[in-house]
Amino acid sequence: MAIATTSQALENCPEVSGIEQIAPGIYRANGEHGEWSGVLQGVAAKTAPVQYFEMALAIQEQQPAPQYFQYCTYGLGDQDLLDLRFLAKNESDFNIKTEGDTWKKEHGPFGIIYHVCENTAPQDCKFSLIQ
To answer: Which of 22, 30, 86, 121 is most buried (most C-beta within 10 Å)?
Structure first.
C-alpha cells in the first residue's frame, strides 16, 4: 500500500524593505521557497517605492476544500496598490494552509471563503505551501 506524501514549506509576505522595483512599474522580492512578483496597474512608466503593507488574501471554495493563495497587497502612495503574487521555485501549482491567528475568515458569495491577513506586519502573514 502506497502512502501519499506532500511537501510543506513555510512562506510569508515579504517585508517592505525587501521589495525592489526592477523596472518602472515592475516589482519583485525573494521568498524562502520562491519569488514574489507584481506589475503596477495603470501608468507603467511610474517609478514609486513600496511604502506600506496593506493585506494578504487566500481563497477557499468551501470547507474543507484546499486554500489557494492569491496575493499580498502593498501601498505605493498616491492611492496606488501593488499585488505581489508568489511563484514557487519549482514553478509547480500549490495550495496553502494559513498559519497563525492573524488570518481572519470571511464568507463571500457562492460559498467562497476569504482568508484575510491585515492590520499586521507582512511577515506575520504566514502560510505553508502544500505541493
So the answer is: 86
Give residue for cell 501608468. 43
pLDDT tens track for 60-97: 998 888 999 999 999 997 788 999 999 998 877 899 99
User: Domain for residue 1, yes or no?
Assistant: no
84, amino acid identity? L
What is the model's pTM? Answer: 0.89
If DSSP states are collapsed to H, E and C, what string results for 73-106?
Answer: EEEEECCEEEEEEEEECCCCCCEEEEECCCEEEE
Alpha carbons 74 and 86: distance in angstroms, whole number: 14
Q: Residue 3 domain-assigned?
A: no
Domain range for 115 is: 8-130
